[in-house]
Every structure is written in C-alpha cells, then in structure tokens.
C-alpha cells in the first residue's frame, strides 16, 4: 500500500513531467511569431482549418510556403488597432508533455506584459536575431526573467540561415548572453541556434548545423525539469470562504474553503491562523466531498479545525512550526503596469492571496534601469513599465513570505481603490514588522495608519 508521503512525491513527479508553463519574449522582428507558429505547426498542434486558412492567405500573397507567423497575426493586428492586450496564452501538447505558452509582446512599452506572462512561467524563451546579437531589449528580457526568478531560460538565436549557419556567430552571442544572465542570477541558461522560418532545430534537428549537438527547442521543452515543487514549501492555506450550512444534518459544521498555495496539510497538525495568531489543530480535511487525512498544493479543499476561532476570508492558515511573519510595513520590488503614475503618498489597495487591505505608498527608494541595471534613487514616482523598490504601509497586518521563497505567497497586487485598476505587480522582499507605528497621512477617510 502506498504511503501518504509517496503519494505526495508521486503527485509532484507527475506535475513536473506533464505540464510546463513557459513564456516567449523577443525584440521586434526577431521572428517570435514565426517561432511560435513553427512550434505549433511542427508539433502538429494546429487545427486543419487554421492551417488551410494560413495556406490560402500565404498563396494570395504569392508565397510558396505557408507563412507560419500568420498563426499569431490575429494578436498582432489587434495591437495595431490600438487594443490593449496583456498576454496571449496558447495551449498545446505532445506525447511527452502538456504546455501552456504565454506569448508576450516585444516592444519596450510592453515590458509590463512580459512580467505578467513570466510571473508563473517555469521557463522563458528569449529570442535573438543572429544578425543583431544581444541588444538592449535582450538584456531587458533577461533582467525581467531574473527578477521574476524564472528557473530556466532558453536563448534561441534565430535566423541562423541569414548568417550562413556560422558556429562562430552563435558562439559569440551565446557567450555574451550567458555571461550577462549569469551575473543577474539566472540559474540555468540553454542556448540553441535555430531558424524558425526554415524549421532548423525548432522541432526537428538541423541538417545545416552539424557542429551543434544539443537539443531542439521542443526537445528541451519536453525534457527540462520543473525545478520548483509546491509541496516542498511550508504549507500556506489562504481562506477563501467560510462554510457554515447550519442544517439539521450538519448543525455544527464549520469549514474553511480555499486552495492550498503551497505545502502539505495533515489531520492532527498544529496550525496558526494569521494575522490573529490564534492556534488550533486540523480536525478534518474535506476534498471532493470526501474526508481525507492529507492534502497538498494546489488542491482545493475545506479545512476543519478543532477550535471555534474567528476566521474569515483573507486569513491564512499555516503550520505552527513554520508560520510566515506578519507585518504592516512591506518592502518590495514592483512592476508598474498602469498608465497613471504611482507616487509617494498614493492611497492603494494591496491584494495578497485572498486578502485585500488599504495601504499607502510610504517611499519609492529607487527605480531600476534595465538597460544597465543601475538604480535611479528617489524617483518620486513610477510610470508604466517602470520597475522599482517601494515601501508600503498597510492598514492591517499581512502574512507575507519573501518572493525568493515562494512566488505564490510572496507576490501581491497594488490596486486603485477608486476604480479597481491594477496599478502594480509586487514581489515582497525584506519586511520590517518591528518598527514603530508610522502615520503617513492623516485624514477622515480611514487612511490614517
């Protein structure tokens, strides 16, 4: 009989080998649309009617072969019409793995969109034109991938056919990018020479680059290990809903429903409810209508506790042996995604997991210049696509992990309280909960904290 520990391990192994989330990024005209189209076409992930439509349009333009970039040109046309689109997601599968592809735009003004697409990615494919080498936008994409702690980065050196498939050209670009990305802290970098237009090393190995002995793009996507394991992190259970049916059949039932963000929960385990700090023991776990002894991320379950505790949406249940620290002062790195600036003194809402609280921006200590990774001190405000450090004071304590420890419970959003617009995506860093209470701006609207 399989033990519960083995069940958790088997689930983690299954997740690692069956699903890969990855994002693509590249500068304008580097061939990203063609690469995505080639990947979908050669992996036989394109519907027949889609391919026929591409063939008809290509023929009408006098092209001998289908223009695979047309498979993604619908999104491009929408951008040209001025429609704001964050990220296009595509889903496909091979016999070895399922994929969720976040297709992010390449323009400088869409840096915020790469942040959105790469925030949940296990891997990022950064495209480079072999004729141009590593350019400013390439360095920007590498910096964003490092900032978001994407575990794997693929450098796809495209248009090798236009440089006569020269190994020296590829080697120079790969060396420069690898040195830069390594300095940023990217843990794993794989460089692959390709021609998306001709299909070299995308799905099938190239006949023109016998000097390259590494994997194709698809082979690497199918075999790269997903390095993070949610079940290996400390358990975090944000409460989404309190269930109290108060029926004759269940007069005393009280359960707390939500999705386990990380870790493993077990019946009989001592837990702490945050931010109140009250403690109890897990009396039961209900999953899919049945009682279970153990549950793990990312399962959606209902947790029952041995004690009646005042718990509501936004509270966090964590093991008493390893709870996160609570704080009202948060130091974080944020990417500003809204058109209106974020200034010191701004009143915002901070949404962390299922909890939303009032907050005020106390400081903006610096803004990151992605071109050379320099810090611009005290910018006063952040505008669209800016990445900077902020200090935020919240009206109520938050149970935050560091983003370096957990991408799920270390991230948050800053929201405009007036219209609900998302202002910035944040990654929590060092928090300082022990400092004295600070009033940023006092008024009569409940923002004095």
Commentary on this structure:
With 449 residues, this protein is α+β, with helices and mostly antiparallel strands. The chain has three domains: 4-223, P-loop containing nucleotide triphosphate hydrolases (Rossmann fold), CATH 3.40.50; 231-319, Elongation Factor Tu (Ef-tu), domain 3 (Beta Barrel); 326-431, Elongation Factor Tu (Ef-tu), domain 3 (Beta Barrel), CATH 2.40.30.10. The protein has helices at residues 4-18, 32-42, 48-60, 73-80, 111-118, 136-147, 167-184, 217-223; strands spanning 19-26, 88-93, 98-103, 123-129, 152-158, 188-193, 237-238, 241-243, 255-259, 264-266, 270-274, 278-287, 290-292, 294-296, 300-305, 316-319, 326-336, 342-343, 347-352, 355-369, 374-377, 381-382, 387-399, 411-415, 422-431. Strands 7, 8, 9, 11, 12, 13, 15 and 16 form an eight-stranded antiparallel sheet that branches. It has a six-stranded mixed sheet with strand order 2-3-1-4-5-6, sandwiched between helices. The protein has a six-stranded antiparallel barrel with strand order 17-23-20-19-24-25. Helix 5 (111-118) packs parallel to helix 6. The radius of gyration is 24 Å and the shape is globular. The chain starts with a helix and ends in an 18-residue tail after the last strand. The model is unreliable at 10-17, 78-85 and 430-444 (pLDDT under 50).
